[in-house]
């Protein structure tokens, strides 16, 4: 019988080998890695019926969510439609037409004819306050004007207008209560020494000095958190807008009054910079950069970084989220990174580029929003509130305390100056067109051709320098030619002034202008001596004018033996006593009789007695 050969589980012979538990026992093959890492399957396979039921449940849930969203969208649409039915929104090509329609809306509001607020939420998005804004339509400055109730304008601005096409400006009307506001800017290319960090330090020191000015003038304290700080800085230009919220909602009476405080502030800062006081207060950055280099190639002109030209009649002020026409949306006015003002909770700079998606798009989106997120995507209330907080003119100002420039302690000096000059008002003569001194007019017109453009005399005035002075001052307000000695070119919009001064020993003229920068710097051009023939005619005119203002009754009374006139000069008194004045006195008496007491003075330089 042959030998039986035993084999192990691996096909190897076990002959001559003793069984071993550790070595000879058959080994397990283990788990295939592909099986180990394979996703587990349910213990029981789903049937077709179960899968169909699952799809039905998912569809039902999706339809229920969509129905809720449709209801939310429908409610919002209904509210907006109700609001639209009660309000107005129109576009105009001209400012005058727009202002007429605005006045019409204001009259209706005053008479209570504006639609009721029933079922409308108390939000700026549904405001019934009539407002006007300008929309820039070209790089040349051409504009159109949108007028309507504030909520309608805000809905159009945030919901319908593409972020790249937002070129909106708030129009600030005269005599309209407003918040204090500032436009701060400088050219970064012309001022490379001012880094962004330095600029932020400059902003901080300026706001501190602004707070000190308001405290001194009105006894009101403000902090950085009371200032809306908007930024549109680019690589070429530093630009910030500040809108001040006074703690109790106080407003300035008008943009003019706000400008008065701004000018007082800048004037004080300029004085303290010159005297070193600003540096002694630790405001070194502000002292160093209050005046910056203007944007001119190769120029060294100094201008204040506070723009004092933004307080004029019907001023336009760019609003949050807008940029100038021709610029990119990166230059849009946004919330400054260092702003401490509290905007609505859900609003930040990321919302400036958002725009409404249709309700259908949101409902059909594969990335389905939950109901709260969907509602928030359709609600632009926080956008409207943020814009309202950043406006110069508040939406509602009826119950606000109004501050005037005359209410402040700082205006006392201005009032005293006004009182000193008021007594001269009756002695100042003014008119339009040509003045009584034709040779002087011709000379001023020759001076007003600098820069290659012939200027015109728009208005003139003549008056004494002081109430008891022999000096006289003539002022010419010019038009057409705005060439200014300080900047060496034409001003863009502000006219110039020619001032003429004549006294017993001198007669000169010099140029000033209406430009806020020039006025703040108290600029006065070089004095130019007047030609001899001009001086001669001027002296003759003022002599005739003084003689015409003499009181005839006093002269006659003196000639009849009244109190003698003494000039405190013995030789002059002796010469005067030898003069024969009988023919002058008799002519004066005849003139007085002929006038039948209608006048007590001899008027006009053409009077015969004036020539003798």
From TrEMBL:
<dbReference type="GO" id="GO:0003887">
    <property type="term" value="F:DNA-directed DNA polymerase activity"/>
</dbReference>
<dbReference type="GO" id="GO:0005634">
    <property type="term" value="C:nucleus"/>
</dbReference>
<dbReference type="GO" id="GO:0042276">
    <property type="term" value="P:error-prone translesion synthesis"/>
</dbReference>
<dbReference type="GO" id="GO:0005759">
    <property type="term" value="C:mitochondrial matrix"/>
</dbReference>
<dbReference type="GO" id="GO:0009411">
    <property type="term" value="P:response to UV"/>
</dbReference>
<dbReference type="InterPro" id="IPR044917">
    <property type="entry name" value="PRIMPOL"/>
</dbReference>
<dbReference type="Pfam" id="PF03121">
    <property type="entry name" value="Herpes_UL52"/>
</dbReference>
<feature type="compositionally biased region" description="Basic and acidic residues">
    <location>
        <begin position="19"/>
        <end position="31"/>
    </location>
</feature>
<feature type="region of interest" description="Disordered">
    <location>
        <begin position="1"/>
        <end position="49"/>
    </location>
</feature>
<dbReference type="GO" id="GO:0003682">
    <property type="term" value="F:chromatin binding"/>
</dbReference>
<protein>
    <recommendedName>
        <fullName>DNA-directed primase/polymerase protein</fullName>
        <ecNumber>2.7.7.102</ecNumber>
    </recommendedName>
</protein>
<dbReference type="GO" id="GO:0031297">
    <property type="term" value="P:replication fork processing"/>
</dbReference>
<dbReference type="GO" id="GO:0006264">
    <property type="term" value="P:mitochondrial DNA replication"/>
</dbReference>
